[in-house]
Amino acid sequence: MAGIFDIELHDGDNVPQDESDDDIIEAAEGEYDTNPNVNAILDSENVERVQLSEQTVNPGQDKVGPKDFELCKILGEGGYGKVFQVRKVSGKDKGSIFAMKVLCKASIIRNQKDTAHTKAERNILEAVKHPFIVNLIYAFQTGGKLYLILEYLCGGELFTYLDREGIFLEDTACFYLSEIILALEHLHKLGIIYRDLKPENILLDREGHVKLTDFGLCKEHIGEGTVTHTFCGTIEYMAPEILTRSGHGKAVDWWSLGALMYDMLTGMPPFTADDRKKTIEKILKGKLALPQYLTPDARDLIRKLLKRQVAQRLGSGPEDAKQIMSHNFFKHINWQDVISRKLEPPFKPALKSADDTSQFDEQFTQTVPVDSPVESTLSESANLIFQGFTYVAPSVLEGMYSQSRVGNSRSPRRNYLGSSHGGRGFSPRSLDISNRTHFQTQQRFHPLGHNSMEDTEMMDIGHLSGHA
User: Fold this and answer.
1) pLDDT tens, position by position, 368-418
2) Residue 196 catalytic?
3) pTM for the structure as a whole
4) N or C: which end of the chain has fewer CB within 10 A?
5) Interval 324-356: pLDDT, tens
6) Which residues are documented as binding site for ATP?
7) Which of the following is catalytic: 93, 114, 196, 432?
């Protein structure tokens, strides 16, 4: 999938030539000027002169910027910026509520991987349109910041509901897993692996349906048999092949799905420990303990998703999600009803209005929303890195050119995970590191910088996996 930032140049000799003569214009010699005087043409009274400006270039399109959005609440914040709830104050969609993700350019360009992942997230959000994936509405930039305007998902994080309930019944887990599977299947068909599936990155809309968010760790252009080696994700949900850095593909998402399913049904991810090294050791070598209260179908699906050998893992073959969808755990699921959003969500968020923030952490929503000023200004050459970032959703453009149309248990995860909100992306925990050991090879997650963290981590992993 070609991204907005990806420009590929080809030599003229390699471009296929259309040998058809349909476009040839027959003209006799002397009927056209072989050496025209450009200056004379420009001085001619027959030439219309137009001043280039925002009004004459792409007329009719809104020039959206920070001034067009009123800050309402803070939904989350971290090392790179903040996520706000905002209200549009101009244009056809005036009054609409959105989530605004603000990223500081100066922080991003310090690390090449950060820059690449930011571009990838922007490209993916534009390209991917799916009922269970968050929608990008606008993207724009200022001299020091990048802005992503996303649909506001007022239902909050799936983590909140799981934390509140302790564990889910299998029917409840089946509902969420079915919608997540279709979202991952869609990404895989586009050559994208998600790589950060966890309850914090799964948000609910106002009806209670799933929306995947935070695409900062995604990898594009992954075809069948293609692998990548980036060490990233959240440890408790990371597949063994990411930890050993032996090369991974789309099957890592199915391992994460198995870990998420286990989390939903037991209240905790399958492999956890007091520190990072012990957690990794359990993921690579630990025995999978399945509670007796799980049904045989649930136990079988979890086992097949958490196979350490990629070739044995359910969903690892060319059929991808279809292998998982045909498992007996989903025997009562009508997949056409799932994609049509006809299934009744197990939890419908209790909301008072479209701008309700009650499902988000008060430590953020009670803070006065301020878009902090930029402390440093990038050079012109540095800003060129983000050329092409601006975006307006087709649904918004169509509107511009048409008429306006009118009782809770205590979660067993609390002792291990705590209840603080830090994180990356749209979710409150989605901009910075949370209690879980979430990381990518990025400086913000480790005071020593990404290389020190990555090298130390790989020494630990090499020792544990026998590949020192």
Assistant:
1) 888 876 656 666 667 777 777 777 877 665 554 444 333 333 334 544 444
2) yes
3) 0.73
4) C
5) 999 999 999 999 999 999 999 999 998 988 899
6) 75-83, 101
7) 196
Amino acid residing at 221: H
Tokens of 113: 């991987």
